[in-house]
Design brief:
Keywords: 4Fe-4S, Iron, Iron-sulfur, Metal-binding, S-adenosyl-L-methionine. By secondary structure, the protein is an alpha/beta fold. It has 15 helices and 9 strands. The protein starts with a helix and ends in a 10-residue tail after the last strand.
Length: about 375
Amino acid sequence: MSSFNDIFETYNWDDTKASIYAKTSADVERALVASKRTLEDFKALVSPAAAPYLEQMAAISQQLTLKRFGKVIQLYVPLYLSNECNNICTYCGFSYDNKVRRKTLSPMEIMQEVAVIKDMGYDHVLLVTGEANLTVNVDYFKKTLDLIRPHFAHISMEVQPLDLEDYGQLTPYGLNTVLVYQETYHQEDYKKHHPKGKKSNFQYRLETPDRLGQAGIHKMGLGVLIGLEDWRTDCFFTALHLNYLEKQYWQSKYSLSFPRLRPFSGGLEPKVEMSDRELVQLICAYRLFNEEVELSISTRESSNFRNNIIKLGITSISAGSKTNPGGYAVEPEALEQFEISDERSPQEIAKMIRAQGYEPVWKDWDNCLVK
């Protein structure tokens, strides 16, 4: 069966990067007025040539987002289940070679965490783990989903890529959404950052969204870790991937995230720095390229940045996040996967959203909608 890899192999990283940096102001102006924007338009919108047009991009992005999504911002929260991991990743606090105490939450501990999360007001939870197939596997996910399903309207998952039949086993347990970030589409650098473990298999990860689509997952999330390689080129490949998936698996919905590399204990310095202004450019470029895709911003970003990005294309936001297993109730002081930047409570974030004339949405989905 064909997959995105067939398309990906027709592209060359260096040639793609060169074509982005060769875009001119005329290319940007053409992209701004286009009725339907192409991948070449996206290249122009993320290119350095688009920097002087940021105000125009932001205005169009706001208009398109209001037309498609209205004045609402969805709220979600991560629930870290385990920091056990068999992969070595140069940028992650859970990396196998990072000498920290490992923990996987028991059913009782999961429910302690759920109680705190529910008290915050959440109905959408994102389950997160490292990649340890012996302990954190499909059976563990089934039991966890079965346990928490009565308490949440929407359950997302960001765990190791699974086989097609595994995803098929999890959807009856209430799995709605799966996030799988490629980290970088630069194959050689991918190998440098993932030298050991199943995650070192670039192609298996690249083809994970194909398996999600074939399994009929309701929504899938894509993205790269910004800072590992040239962000403009990496994000073009994300847009290329999204473009392919929407045509191939049109029944699924899609979301994009744009995490910037954050500090952690013994962590990697970003190879490429992305400024706040450049992140705004990227968010607007994604919106101008695709009016339907959901755009998510996490607590990695500062409170000031998040306050100012609400009206420019974002559709979902996390708040009050803890990035360690047991962080809400069981072991609040344990090692985090990465440092968060915006430490405001969910109620403070909701108040900020309302102050801008938008409505915070704690629940936007119900399983009865697909029955």
